Amino acid sequence: MKNYIPRKDLLAGRIVLVTGAGAGIGRAAALGFAAHGASLILLGRTAVKLEAVYDAIEASGAPKPALIPLDLATAGPDACDQVARVIEQEFGRLDGLLHNAAELGTLTPLEHYNDATWDRVMQVNVRAAFLLTRACLPLLKKSADASVIFTSADVGRQGRAYWGAYGASCHAIEGMMEILADELAANTNVRVNSIDPGPVRTSMRARAYPGENSAHLPRPEDILAAYLYLMGPDSRGVTGQALAAQPR
């Protein structure tokens, strides 16, 4: 994946929704998708951050994006259904959905894990992703070539002590990805995969590893090859796969 070189117009004409688009990998992915021709729908909790990404995309000359401020920590079925209705009214279909928004929680032994923190992590990382995917599936099925990407982590592929709700949520994400991919493989044009971004210079990484020198870590924009590959037509036929953005 490191050597994958996407063509400039890879995503031309495609409509892509990115959650957690205001910062980190979500921001970098939104900018990268736009630079390759996609029309972006930017979803996130903080409007001012989304507006900054909106301005950067508009200034680049890429297709004009859309904004949907939404706090996934409190989003239920009605809010997610409303997101889908807005997209249908404005665009009529959806060609891509990147689930990037995530909550870290705390690195704590399970026997001491706080109930409220557990619930918040599961809400943002799993329940909201499920609800939003379910709401958007009719729009994705209208596409001739749709891609759903779930952001996971290595602790969601092999359990590790102290990663608590975040690790459990990533295991759930991987399972949801595999189930959905299998359900959609036969009779739709929707493919579903997951990406482990690996160690990246983000605020979430800094919270998880506060003593780490992040200077040696890649920036979010340095790991976009896997995201572009899965979002674009070069990955047609690839579904149900757990990919890594960086070699391990």
Q: Describe it for me?
A:
With 248 residues, the chain is α/β, with parallel strands linked by helices. The chain has one domain (15-244): Rossmann fold (3-Layer(aba) Sandwich), CATH 3.40.50.720. It contains 7 helices and 7 strands, in the order E-H-E-H-E-H-E-H-E-H-E-H-H-E. The longest helix has 27 residues, at 115-141. It is globular. The mean pLDDT is 96. Belongs to the short-chain dehydrogenases/reductases (SDR) family. GO terms for molecular function: oxidoreductase activity. This is YciK family oxidoreductase. Keywords: Oxidoreductase.
Can you lay out the helices and strands and say which pair or pack?
Blueprint: E1 15-19, H1 24-35, E2 39-44, H2 47-60, E3 66-69, H3 77-90, E4 96-99, H4 115-141, E5 146-151, H5 164-184, E6 190-196, H6 203-208, H7 225-231, E7 242-244
Parallel strand pairs: 1-2, 1-4, 2-3, 4-5, 5-6, 6-7
Helix pairs in contact: 1-2, 3-4, 4-5
Q: Would you tell me the structural class of the helices and strands?
A: alpha/beta
Q: Helix-strand pattern, N to C?
A: EHEHEHEHEHEHHE
* CATH superfamily label: NAD(P)-binding Rossmann-like Domain
| Shape category | globular
Number of helices: 7
Number of strands: 7
Return the CATH class.
Alpha Beta
Characterize the largest beta sheet: strand count, sense, and whether it forms a barrel: 7 strands, parallel
Report strand %: 5-15%
How many distinct folded domains? 1
Mean pLDDT reading: 96
Give the name of the CATH architecture: 3-Layer(aba) Sandwich
